[in-house]
Amino acid sequence: MLTLRGSRGPRCGAELNDLGVIPDGAVLVRDGVLQEVGPTRRIENLALARTALEINAAGRVLMPGFVDSHTHLLFPPPGGAESAADLARAVRATTAQRLEMRARAHLEAMARHGTTTVEVKSGCGPDESAETKILRVLSSLKRDHLDVVPTFLFRLPEGSGEEALHEAAEWTIRELLPKIRRRRLARFADILWNSDGPEPYRDFVRLLEAARGMGFGCKLHLERRRSEAALTAAVERFAVTVDHLEHAAPSDARLLAGSCTMATLLPCASFHSGRGDAPARALIDAGAAVAIASNFNPQHTPTLNMQTAMALGCLRMGMTAAEAISAATINGAHAVGRADHVGSLEPGKVADLLILNAPDYRDLARDFGMNLVHMTMKRGEFIYTEGEVSMARRPAQVFPEPVRAM
Ligand SMILES: [Zn+2]
After folding, report:
1. Does 187 or 395 have the greater pLDDT score?
2. 26-52, pLDDT tens digit by residue?
3. Ligand 1 centre from 201 Cα, in Å?
4. Please, what are the domains in the chain?
5. CA 295 – ligand 1 centroid, Å
6. pLDDT tier for residue 229 given thresholds of 50, 70 and 90
7. Ramachandran region of residue 123, left (φ > 0), alpha (ψ -120 to 50) or beta?
8. Quick check: 215 and 203 in contact, CB under 8 A?
9. How far is the CA of 279 from the centre of ligand 1 (A)?
């Protein structure tokens, strides 16, 4: 059993390797909450355990559910949209019901692959009706089985020009953010940083500061280029995470290591785009806190399996299995502000857990593209159980004559 118990803050550096393993462990769940976590012998002898329904996980790994802290789940399917403007158009042309239905199908697939909490970003550019529609759909999904954490993503088409950016930033600060805040439509504000010059820098910083002033947790999307200025601005303004970092340099690792800002690694994004990977090893070795997420996006990163993200983190970025697991559970929970409730198996936390069809957690680092999830529990309820394969003992198919391949 991997409990992931430990310090209250995000795990960084060497701490990422400590999974709080109990070799023969058990949990006692009541009303969707973990009551007891410990060695099986102790749990079995508790009075409350005598009347409990027993789920046997012998020979399997028991661990917290995955927290996918960075997705673009509501992006239209392939062929739909490229830029923020296309996305806005596609969102306006689709009914909320249809968006909701499609999102729900993705969330179900995530549950089958062990994700129990998921962050979802908007990102339609300066288009109030499209942004609000996405955030409202996300709000209605909050009542579903998985925990959905909505994030407002400030995203402009590449090369929008300084004027357009300035206007969009001003409008977002003046009109959109206060509305989103008032209606409680998003918990985080994420800024996609896609410019370099001094003018855009001022607009991005103003956005960061305004969002923080209104009580949003701040995130930075640093995807297309390296920007030390952007990174410094985010760290100095206590951003919760800086995401992507495919172009980060070793000095960026040192900057993040000395801060309370986490790095969110998205190996599936690099895998699908063919661009380089974020320097995971340099970040961890410098002492930074890292999270791993899928970056799931039906168009550009059509991978929602967190196990695949973790395996890529190990196979391509040199992470250990334990580091990848910490990054995908407890640190993911910190990245979405839910670490008091999920991300580890500790008494008082929500009973979000997985039983893996594997005897050793290290299989997660190796079994690329597989689904090792045997059961997914959300708030004390099994929302997914691996189906049986019927290998009926039918008589072997008999052909009347020898079959000859033509
Ligand atoms: Zn992204």
Report:
1. 187
2. 999 999 999 999 999 999 999 999 999
3. 20
4. 13-64+345-385 (2.30.40.10), 66-335 (3.20.20.140)
5. 5
6. confident
7. left
8. no
9. 17
